[in-house]
Write a structure and sequence with these properties.
Chain lengths: ~325, ~325
């Protein structure tokens, strides 16, 4: 274990957090917690890619409004999405005039951005950074699978890409601290089913959580919640089995944002939510508020990404996955 | 101008640098400088995406061999490419077991990775990082334009995507120092021609260089070379005109990696080279060696990225661009 595996950030806090989601997400069990919704899946635009960019643009403006800041007060934007060449993020950030770092970590992007932003701020390289990620059900379906108009049937293990985005304004002040983080390594256990990404990502989540426990000496009892990004019901079951096989007690506080955002009984979501926007919106919109209300004190957020594309899947290559972790604490 | 706009890194040096390229690049004016070539555009694999991943994989191994290190000695991999969902990078890094951060900055990715790696190392968060980027002519043509088999004609302003990759091993020792850096902001001046990305990116390069000069008080005379990533002949002309219009003397030491890598008279490359792999291979294979030989002491490398995708171009959206800069110095 590398001694530098655990990243300590110094005094880095969440100054504000905001999430914007679509209609289906607003009708789920935690729908009332999101800061803004739009029932129009086009967000007033003419194509789904532009819709996703518009959702992100609105959410960034809402974040700044909530914080009483402007882009001119912001040193850095760090974010990404699932679209080819991450265009939702780039088009949303294009008018800001703020220095911009684009990331691609598939669904791990949100926590990747928090790690990078925290290193920049914690080391004094900048004073504030907005860390964000997004996904959109319609743009993701068309790009990764089929245009929605085809009416393709989905398998039971498939997940529904969340239409949502979340953004955090990080700086030197706030009530929730970015305590530490761990960058994931890529795990590829040979899963080739692009309709079961929970299985591929579960292996990465388990690897990162195990490394995190080993490097810090912490266990599940040190956290009120250990939450993965978007393993969904299938991936969550697999992760629990993997922990059990290795004799690691992961306890009853092991959840998943993809399981929280939808009601499986009431909504047609198969194995749960997925996408960059899943943990981004659930953390920024819901978990952050629970932490501010002191209902959660220590949260280990583990965002999981499946690093495939359509070509690699169609050619039968297995799915590399990665998981990044951040410990958020209320001091 | 934000006081934190210039990033100072501390003691961060290049420990080793390696570039691998394809046949056309090996036949260009600086072909002899590259560390490895393969005349097989498939790099022994069965599809172009796998070929690009294999090229990156070999280059990373070559870098470690040259440095006398292994992946186990490496704290962090930071890189990206142009493929949808950056699969060349992810598949190349998949077997390393090293913590991995994926970036997407289009052709600005190489310098983006150097900036991020330098912040992690300079702030003591890790001891070593490999920063890298790649592109491949055949995978890029198929993805962004047409499969090569169509034999499509290319416009005079179009550029040839470099088949190449470059990687730097950054750490606390070496003869070339990462002196400072500047993160670009997105510039969108309304260019919509995806066959003239040099024009879109020139605006971003000029913006970053102007901001760099303003924040540091330096001018072109402080550098032996100011080199952009892949503006090509067209974009370089536009950038020079823009500097002249603003009364900024950019001097005769203003070059472009896309102009260096090919011989326009002898090779069918239209406006020059482009792609993530252009500045990555030219800097790691060529400019780094000139610096080690003391033929260049101060280089400002400005990597330029066009943040479009095929959908955004086909729908007529203009091209957002970004440019990140790093000052490399020989102490």
């Amino acid at each position: 274990m590398n001694s530098k595996a655990i990243l300590k950030f110094g005094n880095v806090y969440i100054g504000a957090a905001v999430a914007t989601v679509g209609k289906t997400e607003s009708e789920g069990p935690i729908g009332d917690y999101f800061d803004a919704i739009d029932t129009d899946e086009y967000f007033g635009k003419k194509d789904f890619e532009e819709a996703e960019a518009e959702m992100v643009r609105r959410n960034l403006n809402l974040l700044l409004g909530k914080a009483g800041k402007s882009f001119a007060d912001t040193d850095l934007l760090i974010g990404g999405d699932l679209l080819n060449q991450c265009t939702a993020t780039a088009f949303a950030a294009a008018e800001s005039g703020v220095p911009y770092l684009g990331l691609y970590g598939a669904c791990s992007t949100f926590i990747e951005s928090v790690i990078c932003g925290s290193v920049f701020i914690g080391s004094g390289r900048c004073d504030s950074a907005i860390c964000f990620a997004s996904s959109h059900f319609c743009s993701a379906e068309r790009q990764y699978r089929f245009p929605l108009e085809y009416g393709s049937l989905r398998t039971p293990t498939s997940q529904r890409t969340v239409t949502g985005t979340g953004a955090l304004l990080l700086g030197n002040q706030g009530s929730i601290r970015i305590e530490s983080g761990m960058i994931g390594r890529i795990i590829n256990k040979g899963v080739t089913d692009a309709n079961n990404m929970g299985a591929a990502m579960a292996c990465a989540a388990v690897d990162t959580i195990k490394r995190y426990f080993a490097a810090t000496g912490k266990t599940q009892s040190d956290f009120d919640l250990i939450v993965t990004g978007d393993l969904g019901f299938e991936g969550n079951d697999i992760a629990k089995d993997m922990f059990a096989l290795e004799g690691i007690d992961i306890g009853n506080n092991f959840g998943d944002c993809g399981m929280m955002i939808y009601d499986r009984e009431r909504q047609d979501v198969h194995s749960g939510g997925s996408g960059c926007g899943c943990i981004a919106s659930v953390f920024s919109g819901y978990l952050y508020k629970l932490m501010c209300e002191n209902r959660l004190k220590n949260v280990l957020a583990v965002a999981t990404g499946a690093l495939l594309n359509t070509n690699s899947a169609l050619r039968g290559h297995s799915i590399p996955a990665v998981a990044h972790a951040v410990h958020f604490s209320r001091g």
